[in-house]
Write a structure and sequence with these properties.
It comes from Gossypium barbadense. The chain is of the alpha/beta class. The protein contains 20 helices and 17 strands.
């Protein structure tokens, strides 16, 4: 029997006693026949339980969940603690129409100067157009949505012949895209565009409903047990703004992975280096934006699934606060961790898409009672100078715990630039109990995933999942009810630590990931892989966002 550990109440924790511990995940890296054999072992009735019990003990999960007395009460759902009003922001009424919110967000952005992107009658490359570039081109009659649609359709169809294959989309209908583009083109001809997003091309991750496309979650079977009758709420809001939806993009199966590996439809490759992963699970959304085909995309994020691929592909991803966007119409709509968030090539474009999709569900508005959302007001130099008042919190030992010092060095250069150019102050902080935070996160998201998928797995669909997903499901099945409650007690405790930190700083700064895009092993393309060491580096800094 392990010795019982008693945690002091979070409010009494002496931060001077906190020592940073480098995270070491003890689990095998497997591909090919060894991966298949390991899956058979962990799914065996008795042997599987023994293996999972051993792995959890090796990684101190049993000690944390079963041998520890946690004094805090459980926090079963994220909460919105009281907060002071922020300077230089514009409060948004989420009851307003999406197109009205987008118009308000547009007024918060810096002045758009066409001369910075255009010269005479020449057109800039399609590859790097941003939302306001398209909007200017459409209104100046330099190009039409239908012209852009033909270019995009041609490139997508050519992807089928690339060597190596670059599978971006799981569901794609060229005629549907042409129909949407024609309607947008007509609105511009009549002088009645719906919003700045009218005619903007976006892609939707395959776990978010976009009618009439099926939602498979990048499995081979989800569409057989779950039909799509209408758009997800977020997608419907985009349509009302005139967005043209190109289809459903690839992802790590059911969102249960950080690389984007998918043997079912092919592994999406990083547009900047085809031999490397995009990151996951929103691999397709990040890749299609980074490739220049779409100005933006929607992904889902419960453990870095928007932020990780955005980082590895060099674009911008926003993990919205839980409850800010409605999850209705997504495969992962029943938990307390997942959100729908935008991916785009610039912060400005992320703000515009976020403006369109934001709005809590009626249930979340009642239970969470979130304060009104807001946009940063970047429209004037005076407001932009507010950046200088930000206090940046840096936990140096954590910040520097990366696979290569190239990452921390570059991020350190950014902090120096913010200090030199804007006068931002960097303050040293300590974030206690990072291991506990990681453990609570995996138990929370894993238990909720298991609960959601259990009926289908019991019905025989579990064996149709990819091998790495089956290993994850075997781990999730090993969690008990008491494990879940213990994780929620840790959740409240960790929330307390963060609330105390935010009394001293405005932002916690870290690298997004602990490593750059990993190379794709050739042995992982056919059957996938499990590599928890890579996962640990990719997830190192992102888990605080699940609270």
């Amino acid at each position: 029997m392990g010795k019982k550990r008693v945690m002091v109440p979070a409010k009494d924790l002496d931060l001077s006693t906190v020592k940073y511990e480098h995270e070491v995940i003890k689990a095998p890296h497997l591909t090919g026949s060894m991966l298949k054999l390991f899956v058979r072992m962990v799914e065996a009735p008795v042997l599987g339980s023994l293996i999972m019990s051993f792995l959890k003990k090796q990684n101190k999960m049993v000690e944390m969940l079963q041998n520890t007395v946690i004094p805090e009460a459980p926090m079963f759902k994220p909460e919105f603690p009281p907060q002071d009003a922020e300077p230089s922001v514009v409060i948004v009424d989420e009851e307003r129409k999406p197109e009205d919110r987008v118009e308000l967000a547009l007024k918060c952005l810096p002045h758009y100067d066409p001369a910075s992107c255009w010269s005479g009658d020449s057109l800039p490359s399609f590859r790097y157009w941003k939302i306001r570039d398209y909007a200017y081109a459409y209104r100046s009659k330099l190009v039409t949505p239908s012209m852009v649609a033909e270019k995009i359709i041609s490139i997508i169809e050519d992807c089928n012949y690339h060597k190596p294959p670059t599978p971006l989309l799981i569901s794609f209908d060229a005629e549907d895209i042409r129909k949407q583009a024609a309607a947008s083109t007509q609105r511009f001809e009549e002088g009645n565009p719906l919003s700045i997003l009218d005619g903007i091309f976006m892609a939707i991750k395959d776990d978010i409903d976009c009618y009439p496309h099926p939602s498979k979650g990048a499995t081979t079977w989800m569409h057989e047990v779950r039909s799509v009758e209408k758009d997800a709420v977020c997608v419907s809001r985009l349509r009302s703004c005139g967005v043209i939806l190109v289809g459903k993009v690839n992802m790590h199966e059911l969102g249960m992975g950080t690389t984007g590996n998918n043997p079912n439809y092919g592994t999406t490759r990083n547009p900047h280096a085809l031999e490397r992963y995009t990151g996951g699970s929103s691999s397709g959304p990040a890749a299609i934006v980074a490739s220049g085909l779409c100005s933006a995309a929607l992904g889902t994020d419960g453990g870095g699934s928007v932020r990780i691929p955005s980082s590895l592909c060099g674009v911008v991803g926003l993990k919205t606060t839980y409850g800010r966007t409605s999850m209705e119409g997504s495969i992962c709509d029943a938990g307390t961790v997942e959100i729908i968030g935008p991916i785009a090539s610039t912060v400005e474009d992320v703000i515009l898409v976020y403006a369109a999709i934001l709005g809590s569900s009626p249930e979340d508005r009642i239970s969470l009672r979130p304060p009104p959302p807001c946009f940063p007001d970047l429209s004037s130099l005076e407001n932009a100078n507010t950046l200088g008042s930000l206090r940046l919190g840096k936990y140096t030992e954590w910040f520097n715990d990366v696979h290569s010092t190239d990452i921390s060095d570059v991020c350190e250069d950014v902090l120096k630039l913010l200090s030199k150019s804007h006068g931002c102050e960097t303050i040293e902080i300590v974030i206690p109990e990072l291991h506990e935070m990681r453990t609570a996160h995996v138990v929370s998201i894993g238990s909720e995933t298991q609960c959601s998928l259990n009926p289908d797995c019991e019905d025989g669909k579990g064996v149709k999942l990819t091998y790495d997903t089956r290993i994850s499901m075997a781990l999730f099945r090993s969690f008990t009810a008491s494990d879940y409650v213990a994780a929620q007690c840790l959740r409240r405790r960790i929330m307390h630590h963060h609330m105390e930190i935010f009394k001293k700083v405005d932002v916690i700064v870290t690298p997004t990931t602990g490593m750059t895009a990993p190379k794709i092993p050739s042995s992982a393309l056919k059957d996938g892989e499990t590599d928890m060491q890579v996962t640990a580096y990719l997830m190192r800094f992102i888990i605080a966002g699940w609270l």
